[in-house]
């Protein structure tokens, strides 16, 4: 089906090559099986037998289907990785009002320079800087290190990391698509969406360059005169 669409739309790609190769092999084998006497001597085997390519076409199609299955599984794993990265971000954040009280808001409502409170065991909502408090933060999703990192006033924290036993107040420095986790998700999604596009084959052949012929200037008519002495 893909090979037929590529031929119909003149957009030649890998499926065009596979479709033409297996189709020609199958049709030739079918013709040789039904009309073996109509084949020329050049198409016969060494012993005079009729060559058949049914198994070759079947093997090629099988290998292509296996490759498509492996690619589909890789896509599913990539999609699962993107979903797992998105699940690292908490859906809510606890913002501190000007009077010192807390309010729970959606993560999309967090703005830069907002003061946020992170309680023990909660996930850090966005990238920011610790203003008050002291705690240990599990940054294994960024660094891969299983040992929590101590955080005090002035230390940076990354959105999606898990807070330890202590609590702290932080200032949001990067929100939305500016956070480290959002950039990682964007890069993974961009790598997932990459597709190699095969350019259209132009049926026209380039024209040869015009041949230039140099002509020598003609000599003036009339008898030649000897130079003066």
TrEMBL record:
| GO MF assignments | ATP binding; copper ion binding; P-type divalent copper transporter activity
Query: Topology with regard to the membrane?
Result: Multi-pass membrane protein
Q: Which Pfam families match?
A: E1-E2_ATPase
Sorted UniProt keywords? ATP-binding, Cell membrane, Membrane, Metal-binding, Nucleotide-binding, Translocase, Transmembrane, Transmembrane helix
Q: Name one GO biological process term.
A: copper ion homeostasis
Name the GO cellular-component terms.
Answer: plasma membrane
As for subcellular location, the record says:
Cell membrane
* Annotated region described as Disordered, given as residue ranges: 136-160, 201-229
Q: Low complexity bias: where?
A: 216-229
Q: Extract the SUPFAM superfamilies matched here.
A: Calcium ATPase, transduction domain A
| Residues that span the membrane, as ranges | 12-44, 50-70
Residues in P-type ATPase A domain copies: 88-188
Q: Which family does it belong to?
A: Belongs to the cation transport ATPase (P-type) (TC 3.A.3) family. Type IB subfamily.
Listed name of the protein: Putative cation transport P-type ATPase
* Native species: Nitrococcus mobilis Nb-231
Give the source lineage, highest ranks first: Bacteria, Pseudomonadati, Pseudomonadota, Gammaproteobacteria, Chromatiales
């Amino acid at each position: 089906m893909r090979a037929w669409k590529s031929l119909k739309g003149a957009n030649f790609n890998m499926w065009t090559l596979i479709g033409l190769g297996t189709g020609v092999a199958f049709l030739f084998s079918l013709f040789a099986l039904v009309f073996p006497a109509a084949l020329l001597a050049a198409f016969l085997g060494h012993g005079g037998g009729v060559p058949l390519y049914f198994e070759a076409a079947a093997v090629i199609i099988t290998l292509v289907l296996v490759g498509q299955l492996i690619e589909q599984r890789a896509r599913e794993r990539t999609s699962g990785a993107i979903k797992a990265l998105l699940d690292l971000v908490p859906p809510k954040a606890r913002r501190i009002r000007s009077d010192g009280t807390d309010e729970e808001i959606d993560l999309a409502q967090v703005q830069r320079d907002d003061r946020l409170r992170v309680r023990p065991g909660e996930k850090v909502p966005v990238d920011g800087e610790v203003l008050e408090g002291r705690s240990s933060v599990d940054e294994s999703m960024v660094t891969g290190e299983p040992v929590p990192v101590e955080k005090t006033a002035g230390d940076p924290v990354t959105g999606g990391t898990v807070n330890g036993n202590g609590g702290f107040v932080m200032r949001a420095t990067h929100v939305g698509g500016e956070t480290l986790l959002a950039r990682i998700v964007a890069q993974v999604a961009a790598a997932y969406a990459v597709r190699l596009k095969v350019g259209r084959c132009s049926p026209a052949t380039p024209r040869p360059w015009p041949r230039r012929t140099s002509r020598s200037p003609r000599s003036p008519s009339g008898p030649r005169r000897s130079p003066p002495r």
